[in-house]
Amino acid sequence: MAKKKKSKIQTPEWILKGKAPPEEKKKKGKTFKVRKCPKCDSDNVQVVVGEEAKGMWKCNNCDWKGTDIVREELTEEEFMKYLDEKGEEVA
Questions:
Q1: pLDDT range class, residue 88, cuts 50, 70, 90
Q2: Contacts of 30 (CB under 8 A, 6+ apart)
Q3: Residue 46, domain member (yes or no)
Q4: Spatial separation of the C-alpha atoms in residues 71 and 43, rounded to whole Å
Q5: Rounded distance, CA 12 to CA 47, Å?
Q6: Which of 3, 21, 40, 84 could form a disulfide with 62 if both were Cys (CB 3.0 to 4.6 A apart)?
Q7: What residues make up the domain containing 38?
Q8: How confident is the model at residue 86 (pLDDT cuts 50, 70, 90)?
Q9: Is 12 a domain residue?
Q10: Structural domain count, the chain
Q11: Which domain CATH number covers 65?
């Protein structure tokens, strides 16, 4: 019985053409990270210090506790709009 040849890993096309790797879908420019409660969508959340589970968060509005916090990455323009809608003072 003849042995089956293993297929070789193929070099990506962008390497063969001498180009840079394709960019990930990352927001350009300065970005801001906002963390929100998954229960009430409030950004009034904080890390709980002293809990056994690492990464424990607490919402100060609805008293939710957990590790599955909602994370958003906003561009500067989106962040300014977010603050404006929230009623925060923007200088």
A1: confident
A2: 75, 76
A3: yes
A4: 10
A5: 42
A6: 40
A7: 29-86
A8: confident
A9: no
A10: 1
A11: 2.20.25
**Token output for 38:** 């998954």
Amino acid identity, position 82: Y
Task: List all residues 6 or more positions away from 76 whose beta carbon is below 8 Å from its beta carbon.
Answer: 29, 30, 31, 32
Strand partners, 32: 74
Longest dimension (CA), the chain: 77
Buried b (16+ CB within 10 A) or exposed e, 5-22: eeeeeeeeeeeeeeeeee
Q: What is the pLDDT of residues 53-83, one digit of tens each?
A: 678 899 999 999 988 889 999 998 898 898 8
With tokens 């906002």, the residue in question is 34
Residue 22 included in any domain: no
